[in-house]
Design goal:
The chain has about 230 residues and is mostly helical. It has a domain of about 160 residues. Helix content is about 60%, strand content about 0%. It has 13 helices and no strands. The longest helix is centred in the first third of the chain and has 16 residues. The protein is globular. It starts with a helix and ends in a 31-residue tail after the last helix. This is Nitrate reductase molybdenum cofactor assembly chaperone.
Length: about 230
């Protein structure tokens, strides 16, 4: 299993199949082309996951990646936000997948990071590195926010930064993350939903084609086939 495939699996919503194949995941941690410290970190992450109850792990994933926007694994959330450009970016990315012989499940958003990593795991190393270089700042910011929140996903995201080119200034991003207000608190979530309340008539925003801005409450299994 390539390192990108492995990191993608570990960042994805933890379904019960992970516990059924725990031994394979642990073995994969020892086989990936990383430094010994990084392999130990991956193994530690997997072991911690396997030692947890699946329902607890799933609830923790939702609390981490599905509350607020700052830890979203939807890449265009960080690039385009609410901009109309996001819809076109989605279309372009789907077309890129298709040109490489991949078809997405109709329920999956193309900018979901674990999905992109699965795609990149099938591409030449130079192309995968270029993609990771372009999203390096996003991965670095996610790593910095994860560190600020004392989440176990930090090494997974830092590995992506390193796989791109490793030139992202993680220290500067950690400082920025430490100064950011949290957007996953109950108060922040209440305010967000108030702002996104459906409006009708003259007050309705003209954004008929705006794509969804957050991952589904229960992520679906992705089906990307070469």
């Amino acid at each position: 299993m390539s390192v990108l495939k492995l990191v993608g699996v570990l960042l994805d919503y933890p379904r019960e199949e992970l516990w059924q194949h725990g031994g394979e995941l642990l073995a994969a941690c020892d086989e990936v082309a990383l430094t010994p410290p990084r392999r130990r970190q991956l193994r530690g992450f997997v072991q911690q996951l396997l030692d947890s109850d699946p329902l607890d792990a799933q609830a923790a994933w939702l609390a981490t990646f599905d509350r607020g926007r700052s830890m979203s694994l939807l890449l265009f959330e960080h690039i385009h936000g609410e901009s109309r450009d996001r819809g076109q970016a989605m279309v372009d990315l789907v077309e890129t997948y298709r040109k490489h012989g991949f078809e997405l499940d109709a329920r999956e958003l193309p900018d979901y990071l674990p999905l992109l990593l699965e795609f990149l795991a099938h591409q030449p190393q130079s192309e995968a590195r270029e993609w990771l270089h372009h999203i390096g700042h996003i991965a670095g910011m996610l790593a910095a926010r994860a560190a600020e929140r004392e989440l176990p996903h930090v090494p997974l995201l830092e590995i992506l930064v390193e796989a791109g080119d490793g030139k992202v200034n993680l220290e500067a991003l950690r400082q920025r993350a430490s100064e950011e207000p949290r957007d996953d608190t109950a108060e922040a979530m209440d305010k967000l939903w108030e702002e996104e309340a459906v409006r009708f008539g003259a007050e309705a925003p003209a954004e008929d084609c705006k794509p969804p801005t957050r991952s589904p409450a229960r992520p679906v299994h992705r089906e990307v086939q070469p």
